[in-house]
C-alpha cells in the first residue's frame, strides 16, 4: 500500500469500501489559521503560490485540522497563462487582472507554449516533492489545472467577469484564431500535467470553472475537443473533470475518457448518471453556503446527499468553500461523511 488512506484511489478501482472519500475544494485556504498566518507574512497571493516550502505547509494543513481523505496541491490555475507570457496579479476585491491580454493573432503567436512554457513552472514541481515528503504516505495528492476554455476566458478578457463577453466575442468573430489559442493552451496543459505526474501527483482535476458561460454549441466546439485531448494524453492517474454548470452538454462528454465527473450543487447525481451511465464516479456536490447553516442542518443535509449519491461517490462541495466559512462547520461536514457507512443505505 502506498498510502495509509487510499479511499479516493479505491473509488476509481471500484473496490468495496465502507464509506466514500471526502475532500473540499479550496480546503487549503482562508478558513484555516495556518494559511491566514502565512498569507499575512508574505504580503501577496502570488508570493505564496511561488514559494514551494509555503505551498507544502498550506497543502498539508487540511490533513491535520480537517481530516480530509486527500490533499490538493495549493496553486492557481493562472500559473499556466503566466508561464505562456501573460503576467497577472491578484487585486483585492477584484480578483485576477492581467497586465496584457490577447486581442489578435499576433498576440497568440508571441505566446510560449508546450514544454517551453511548462518548464517555467519549476516552483510548482518542487512544491510537489516537498509536499509528498510532508504528507509522509498518509493520503494521495491531487494536482489540478484550469481547462482550456477557462484559461482562454481569462487570457482574452484580461480579468474575471460575470459574462466573459470579450472572450466570447473573440470566439464568434475570430474562430480560427480562437482554435489556435486553445491548441496552444492545451499543449501547455498536457506538458504541465505530465511533469506534475512525474513528480508524484496521484489524481488530476480539471477545473472548467466558466463552462456555464458557453452555449451548448460553443462548448462542443471550443471546449470538449481540447478537454478530450488532455484526458487522452493523461495516462496512469485518474482524472476528475469539473465542468461547472455544463449540465446541458453532459451527453456530449461521453467521448471523453475522464474517470470522475464533478457536479455543482445545482445538478442532481441521478441526472448525471442517467445521461452518462450509472457506473460513473461522481464528485460533489453540497452547496458551499449550506455550511453557514446550523450544525444539525449540516448533518441532516450531508446525510441526505450521501444517500442520494450512493456508491461511486467522492464527497465534496459543489464549488470551493467560501473564505468566511467557519472551519469547525467544514470539519463537521467531513466528520459526518467519515461516520457514514454504505451498509446504512
Verbal overview:
The protein has helices spanning 7-12, 33-42, 45-49, 52-65, 79-84, 105-109, 114-118, 122-135, 148-157, 165-173, 175-199, 216-222, 224-233, 269-276, 295-309, 327-339; strands spanning 71-72, 88-91, 95-98, 141-146, 203-208, 239-243, 260-262, 281-286, 313-317. The strands form two sheets. A seven-stranded parallel beta sheet has the order 1-4-5-6-7-8-9. It has a two-stranded antiparallel sheet with strand order 2-3. The radius of gyration is 19 Å and the shape is globular. Helix content is 47%, strand content 12%. The longest helix has 25 residues, at 175-199. It is of the alpha/beta class. The chain is built from 16 helices and nine strands. Strand 7 (260-262), helix 14 and strand 8 form a beta-alpha-beta unit.
Amino acid at each position: 500500500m502506498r498510502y495509509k488512506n487510499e479511499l479516493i484511489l479505491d473509488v476509481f478501482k471500484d473496490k468495496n469500501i465502507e464509506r466514500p472519500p471526502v475532500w473540499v475544494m479550496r480546503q487549503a485556504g482562508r478558513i484555516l489559521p495556518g494559511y491566514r498566518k502565512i498569507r499575512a507574512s508574505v504580503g501577496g497571493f502570488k508570493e505564496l503560490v511561488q514559494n514551494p516550502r509555503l505551498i507544502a505547509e498550506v497543502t498539508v494543513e487540511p490533513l491535520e485540522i480537517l481530516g480530509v481523505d486527500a490533499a490538493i496541491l495549493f496553486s492557481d490555475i493562472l500559473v499556466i497563462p503566466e508561464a505562456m507570457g501573460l503576467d497577472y496579479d491578484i487585486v483585492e476585491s477584484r480578483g485576477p487582472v492581467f497586465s496584457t491580454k490577447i486581442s489578435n493573432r499576433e498576440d497568440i503567436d508571441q505566446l510560449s507554449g508546450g514544454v517551453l512554457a511548462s518548464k517555467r513552472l519549476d516552483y510548482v514541481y518542487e512544491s510537489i516533492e516537498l509536499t509528498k515528503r510532508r504528507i509522509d504516505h498518509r493520503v494521495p495528492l491531487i494536482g489540478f489545472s484550469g481547462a482550456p476554455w477557462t484559461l482562454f476566458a481569462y487570457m482574452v478578457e484580461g480579468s474575471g467577469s460575470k459574462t466573459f463577453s470579450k472572450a466570447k466575442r473573440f470566439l464568434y468573430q475570430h474562430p480560427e484564431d480562437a482554435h489556435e489559442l486553445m491548441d496552444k493552451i492545451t499543449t501547455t496543459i498536457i506538458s504541465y500535467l505530465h511533469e506534475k505526474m512525474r513528480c508524484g501527483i496521484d489524481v488530476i482535476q480539471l477545473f472548467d470553472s466558466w463552462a456555464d458561460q458557453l452555449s451548448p454549441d460553443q462548448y462542443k466546439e471550443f471546449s470538449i475537443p481540447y478537454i478530450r485531448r488532455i484526458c487522452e494524453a493523461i495516462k496512469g492517474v485518474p482524472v476528475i473533470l469539473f465542468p461547472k454548470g455544463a449540465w446541458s452538454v453532459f451527453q456530449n462528454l461521453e467521448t471523453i475518457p475522464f474517470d470522475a465527473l464533478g457536479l455543482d450543487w445545482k445538478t442532481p447525481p441521478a441526472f448525471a448518471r442517467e445521461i452518462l451511465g450509472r457506473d460513473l464516479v461522481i464528485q460533489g456536490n453540497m452547496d458551499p453556503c449550506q455550511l453557514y447553516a446550523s450544525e444539525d442542518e449540516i448533518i441532516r443535509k450531508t446525510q441526505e446527499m450521501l444517500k442520494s449519491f450512493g456508491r461511486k461517490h467522492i464527497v465534496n462541495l459543489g464549488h470551493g468553500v467560501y473564505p468566511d466559512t467557519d472551519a469547525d462547520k467544514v470539519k463537521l461536514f467531513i466528520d459526518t461523511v467519515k461516520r457514514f457507512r454504505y451498509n446504512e443505505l
